[in-house]
Write a structure and sequence with these properties.
six-stranded mixed sheet; globular; 11 strands; alpha/beta
């Protein structure tokens, strides 16, 4: 397989404090990778670099073999990267219904109005929220709100889906249900999935590879360790 994401010697610093790296990481197209680590270890910073929301100080980021970041010389804007991101709190707009939320995202992406209604229906069906078009976030359960946030992340047909601990606020049953649906969508659409969390249980069911991160660095590949012990 070809690499969907290739990071080489990527580092991020703020105010002289190192937040990430230097870090090397390669993720194959269609792979589901989980990164485990405690709060503050750099997991979210890693996602932000890939999404184009943070500029690395050094190193190179390739996406499908093309440079997206190269130190401070090259920086492909977030809107030009085919990436969806699902946040821990969903980051939904409280005044917008589910239908208006998705329509707004599609309109901002330049989808013609004649196509947006059917696309909104497709997205809601994809996350099992058909019939919820008129509901605002305040009228959704925690699991339903995260499904709407997932639909928003998928609205513009990303090639890569980034998950920033989106299951944390949910109870065990809802976590398993949403994780199962995310995995099904990933397989159906051939998405490359990078999921950061501090909960090892979230990696056990569906991850192709699980990495452990500490102090801004990938310190181990848990699958490799298990294989060596077998």
């Amino acid at each position: 397989m070809s690499s969907a994401i290739e990071l080489t010697a990527i580092s991020v610093s703020v105010g002289g404090k190192a937040l990430l790296g230097p870090l090397d990481l390669s993720i194959e197209s269609g792979e589901h990778v989980v990164v485990l680590g405690p709060s503050g270890c750099g997991k979210t910073t890693l996602l932000r670099v890939i999404a184009g929301l943070a500029k690395p100080a050094t190193g190179t980021l390739l996406m499908n073999g093309q440079p997206a970041s190269e130190g401070r010389r090259i920086h492909l804007p977030a809107e030009k990267r085919r990436i969806g991101m699902l946040f821990q709190d969903g980051a939904l707009w409280p005044h917008m219904t589910a239908q208006k939320t998705l329509d707004f995202v599609l309109a901002h992406a330049g989808v013609p109005s004649a196509q947006r209604k059917s696309r909104v229906s497709e997205l809601l069906a994809l996350v099992e929220l058909s019939g919820y078009e008129k509901r605002k976030p305040g009228n959704l359960s925690g699991g339903e709100a995260q499904r709407l946030a997932l639909a928003r992340a998928l609205a513009c047909d990303p090639e890569v889906l980034l998950l920033d601990e989106p299951l944390g606020p949910l109870d065990a049953e809802l976590r398993l249900s949403l994780l199962k649906r995310i995995n099904e969508i990933q397989r159906e659409k051939g998405l490359t999935l990078l999921h950061v969390t501090h909960d090892p249980e979230e990696s056990e069911l569906y991850a192709d590879r699980t990495l452990r991160m500490e102090k801004g660095a990938i310190i181990s590949d848990l699958q490799s360790e298990r294989g060596a012990q077998a």
